[in-house]
Amino acid sequence: MFRADIQNVHLFRVIMLCFALFPEAGCGSADAGSCHEVKIAYMMRQIGPVQLVPERPGTGEPLRVCVHAGPSCCTSKMEDSYMAAVRSEMQHKMRSYSFELKYLIDGHGKAFQETFESLVSFTSNLTCSLFDSAYSALASDCRLPVFQLFSDIRRHLSGDANSSLNNAVRRFYNDLFPLVYRRLLNPGIGRPSATSHLSFLSNHDDCLRMTQQDVSPFGPHPRLLVGSLSRALGPGRALSRLLRLAGEVVNSTEKVTLSRECGRGLVKMQYCSHCRGLTLLRPCTGLCHNVMKGCLVGVSELGAPWGRLVVLLQRLAATLATSSNHNSMELALLAVRNHVNDAILHAQLHGPQITATVEKVCGPQEPGFMLTDTKSSQIHPVTRATLLTSKASAVILPASPHRHLQSHPQKSFPLKGAKGDKSRSLKKLSREFEISIQRYRWFLSELPEMLCESEMEVEQHTCWSGEDVVESYAGHVVGSTLKAQKENPETSIRHTDPALKEVKQRLERLTQ
């Protein structure tokens, strides 16, 4: 409706300008002895220099596209201008039709990333608070490993192809092990001031990092953390990657390269009638469909894999909209704190065995000076008996948020969400996107017909067949596939845009 209103206003302006500039000519029908109407349309559409349009129809002009036995208001230079104009107009129409889809993909892509960022930042701070409240001796030195872990999680959620949750978790526990070993399992060893001792501790810490997986001080908890995050973050990561791919597909269709054969077909459809003075006559439906299908065959070939991509995006959004304990991203990220706490408790419970193994692999620690700062002076060696008899102690308390969440799994964690909508949750955002994207499943397949229906035609008794005024198009209307274009009477398309072929291959790989 909006495009139709603009078209009517534009047409009204053309008619009024026609009467103002050329009152003797009129605009209701073609004047066989004048090219005034053609000149007005040429000027209003900004095709090129209006001086190129002759005052009266002529013969003998070497036309290549709009060939006509009788007098013509077109020249070869006008045909060149028409060729450039149809390419520009086609790209403008493509951008106009894909604008809403592009806005939907880009807008929701940013909204998802902002929501992920909000959740990751919150859970990063929550994990740091575990060390502040229960393991004060580790608090200051653990901030960097925690920050690095959640930075890796953030990259993973953004769809970074080089990110690995397994590597991120392994690096985190590798960095955590020397701190736990020196501050909790063997708190009597401090940080000597002697340079030789500092060098020894550095080498010893490197050995601890390299042997963490073999010593297994944290038991099964690193593996459990990787499994939990992989399952829960998988849909979010896949959604980010596919949204990025969807944006690339839309961009590639906007920049489609129109072949010379396509340009000839568009000129024949849109402007060859002008050469006869018929500036208000619209192309026939069948003519428009054939020309558009020929020009956009590469886009139409993307239709099937694009449809599968939209279905995948819907399913991923639906998955993120659920609140099940098994696949909830929010609960999995909130539970990182509890996984880390359980891992440290496991190390404390098995402190003597871990120390014995480390001394065999990395050698014994050199005795240093006792730490004298307030926090470290409160540390005492933790034995198995101490842990088993202190279930209500501060070390066990961090697990309580996990128990609370398990008892209320249906509630979605309140997020800051995207800017301008502080109450937007991941569930609400996902549901909104799932509903919106389904409307575009057949967008690329139906684009040629949509361009014809809204831009090319109006209700009328006659139409332009590409060569003459007819009551209906007599040619055969072909399908949208590349194979079908062999029978296209309006264009001769044998190949598709290489860039679109590459996009199609990527789509098929990711959607099959």
From TrEMBL:
Keywords: Cell membrane, Glycoprotein, GPI-anchor, Heparan sulfate, Lipoprotein, Membrane, Proteoglycan, Signal. It is a lipid-anchor; GPI-anchor. GO terms for cellular component: cell surface; extracellular region; plasma membrane; side of membrane. The keyword Transferase does not apply. The keyword Membrane applies. It comes from the Eukaryota. It is found in: Cell membrane. GO terms for biological process: cell migration; positive regulation of canonical Wnt signaling pathway; regulation of protein localization to membrane. Residues 401-421, 485-512 are annotated as: Disordered. Residues 1-27 form the signal peptide. Belongs to the glypican family. Cell surface proteoglycan. This is Glypican 5b. It comes from Poecilia formosa (Amazon molly).
